[in-house]
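>> received
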Amino acid sequence: MRGTALRAPRVRVKYRGRRVTTVYSIDRLVGEARRLAADYRRATGKTLPVTAEIAVQDAIRLLGLKPAENSAAGYDAIRERAGRNERVQVKGRAIFDDSKTGHRLGQLKLEQPWDYVVLVLMDENYEPVEIHEADREVLVETLNDPSASKRTARGMISVARFKIIGRMLWTREHGLEDDGIWDNSSAR
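>> returned
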């Protein structure tokens, strides 16, 4: 019975402005990357560099954002609010040991155009736990504070400091925090 083998259905998806044909949805691929990264870390003690892309997909899915067509432009997603497109840079951090302190975000590129930074905090299985947001003005002010550390002057900020100056958008336990800031009826 040649030629009668079952074939997986092909799915056409639009991802960052490109049409892609795959047998998997983006969510399924990200789920598999999440599982592989967690298994790899448990087996080797090392991390795979997938946190950033997983964080972007989680922010898009959980907050109802639209993917940016070109992430090289300095932002990863777009939020539509009050008839305006806001550019959102997404950062991710997997926290493997809650007892350790000093977790930091990757460097913020202040020369790039973006309006907000969204921080996706993940557990040891690369599953989202919390999502926080800080706007550009507050971040620039914090990073330019003369009393701040040299790391801060290079565009780096700790997770703890980000949580202090930002606001909670989403938690695993409660979903979207309803403070009137986000209008994501399609994400609920």
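>> The beta strands are 11-15, 18-22, 66-67, 77-81, 84-94, 116-122, 128-135, 167-171, 175-176.
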